[in-house]
Amino acid sequence: MSDNDHNRIREQIEGDPNISPHFKKILLNALEKGKVLPETTTAPPIDRDNNQDLIKTLLKEADIPPRYLVEREPITIPDHFIYAQAILNNALITPDKNQILLYGKPGTGKSTLAGKSLKFAIEKIQAVCLYTTSRDICRALSSAWRANKPEPYDIYIEPEILAIDELDEFWNSEFNRFFDFIQYIICKRYDNFLKTIFITNLNKEDLKARLGDRLFSRITEINERLEIFCNWQSFRGEK
To answer: Which helix (H) or strand (E) holds 11?
Structure first.
């Protein structure tokens, strides 16, 4: 690639108001590593459709655990799980539902639902996604504090779709001091109309008691929310 092409593509990416900051970082990083596809070097605008290299990059950046992506056979998937997956897939590629709550007892596939739907959104619309857990967030914040670095807000605020697993872990004695950080992330994403998937073993009453009225009302705002109550039998064989 010539220097002129390189500079033209960089200017195109940096000047496009339709590309999120997080997605710009991914594209610019790919550009510097020489991984921009030929079509992006010849004619603007950058096409996010059917871009297999971009999809691979986004899947890697999303950090979805492989356990939640593989098809494991033989296994009997109940109809209500398949139906829930279809509803969640649709919610991630349409603008109506930004606050998504997956709740229910352990082993019912909540994390699998989220992981597979993130993969679907990446493949379908090349959405910038991130899967994380409350423990991951707390450890990232703790590491930043120890290294005297800025708090890593952008990592969790910028993705178009963020899934936060093990939400109930924030109230363990080890992690409850980080609650203000996660509260800021949730509120900022709410203000920016960004999709957030909340995954918890708590029922709604216990979740409200722990989050408080202000934060719980944002997660469950009636016009933007999607709730999936995973009340079917555990896939782990628990009674």
So the answer is: helix 3-15
